[in-house]
Amino acid sequence: MLFIKVVVNEIPLTFLLDTGVAETVLFSLEETDQVKFFNVEKTLLKGLGKEDAITALRSSGNTLNISNKLIDTNHEVLIVLEEDINFSSMVGIPVNGILGYHFFKDFLIEIDYDKKVLFVYENNAKFRQKISKKYEAFPISLEGRKPYIQASAVLTEAKLAAKLLVDVGNSDALWLFESDVIEVQEPNFEDFLGRGFSGEINGKRGRISELAVGDFVLENPIVAFPDSISIKNVNLVPDRVGSIGAEILRRFNLVFDYKSSILYLKKNSNYGDAFSFNMSGLEIHHKGKQWIPKPIEFSPTKITFQTQGVATPQAASMAFEFKLISVYRIANVRANSPAALAGLQRDDVLVSINKKPAYLFSLQDINALLKSKEGKRLRFEVEREGKIITTEFVLKKIL
């Protein structure tokens, strides 16, 4: 997923860049951040998840500044009041909000996944011609201020014309909504798919034979099938059957041209990567940070002093340095998964992985390890209600 620095009313914040969101949404601030907002009124916000709409504040007249080059002095922001919405814990870095349509609407936005760089060009004939020489162009439709593309999906042997939301903020490869023509493929398993503004998203995961966008064909992608309860609050545009997410999009470098309704695609070095999934059954979240003391070894000079004529050694001082470390917890355990059968439970706090302190890993490192290789044995040490529990399990491929 893509994160950029945005200054909101003179306060620097971090936003997720997301083509699947029409509004600019702020949902988290550090205790030290104090952002002034203007022209505030209450509203309701619906999103993915099994719960009902949530309360938010709509504020207009705000200033957004990106790199001192893209400046909007009359920006509308939705401020989410729910404390449970914390995307930072899911990605392992501080995330304050989501930036969607308004970032893309006026410019040519190039996402270079190879170099991990975002380029912003003026939307004129000169730059469009330059991009068209390197990229393949595909028409998109903008509906509800979100981009949709036509693709084809092969389920079993049947080919399905698929209108899909292009969603760089969705970390999965592909979402499909069950219907009369879309059935969950075997094998599959029940899984926690994530969290939206309206709560947890649950469903199933499986594979399909292929997904094609023009002449680009991706074989055996992993597909999430959200259940009907999780998408009940979403107003689906006509004929939409799902979403293309970042696990597919990262295999391309791409350019969004909203004004011309075009998406440009070009293969990058990730194109041939296999589609892998978390074989442990664990959903790990970042719990926050804590200070831990680390003794400092040193050899103090020995000093003696006299007490009633007896030489007594002076007590040596003990020194510590304090280190700020990341803390991880288990947010969800898939039923009958290797981790569940090994006894790991929701809210267990990670102490070590394969005998290495958990804080030496980033959240990305942990997730990569859980996807790494079928048959890999992992040793987890966790803290539960003040007790240390050690267990092992083997990654098992079920798709």
Automatic annotation (TrEMBL):
User: Where is the PDZ domain positioned along the sequence?
Assistant: 316-386
The organism's superkingdom is given as: Bacteria
Signal peptide positions (record):
none
**Gene3D superfamilies, per the entry:** 2.30.42.10, Acid Proteases
Q: Which SUPFAM superfamilies match?
A: PDZ domain-like
This one is known as PDZ domain-containing protein
